Here is the input.
Amino acid sequence: MASAMLKRSSCSGMKSMVGGLRIVASRAFSSVSVGTDLVSTVPDVSLQKARSWDEGVSSKFSTTPVKELFKDKKVVIFGLPGAFTGVCSAQHVPSYKNNIDKFKAKGIDSVICVSVNDPYVMNGWAEKLQAKDAIEFYGDFDGSFHKSLNLDKDLSAALLGHRSQRWSAYVEDGKVKVLNVETVPSEFKVSGGEVILGQI
Here is the structure.
């Protein structure tokens, strides 16, 4: 079931309040949709796996082509505006971490978090959240992945610059089967992991 939210908000600016995500069928904000082949849509885009600086040096600053993340795999991927942002740290990433066994029981090969950050910040964030064993973290250091999918967002008002919208997808062999673009008003509570679990 493809879905999108009607209003937009950044992780850092949201307040945690009682409520749930409101999902509607409109898909007006991004070019990616259910049925999109991510590998064909972003064939030349690579992401940077979360790592320490020394790991980056020893790997010669290697990147991971998008096709390697999705080929012959069942993947849950979610994007966030920025590492260490408030609600994303307190609720969004933990909602995936806390449900990792349920994802595995559904045959999911990997759960991936991607944000417009460098891989070193993503590594520090993953370690701070103690989520590195459950979730794969990737940096989209220049935002090219999100821009290619029209999932980018200008968050200069929150001093974040150009980042990503908050979104999630279930992808089989590169093809999007479920898509949520969360653009929730501040009165709603983030519950991303539960939302995507209910749709796959």
Q: What stands out?
A: DSSP finds eight helices and ten strands in the chain. The beta strands are 2-4, 46-49, 64-65, 74-80, 110-115, 136-139, 152-154, 162-164, 166-172, 175-182. The two ends are 9 Å apart (CA to CA).
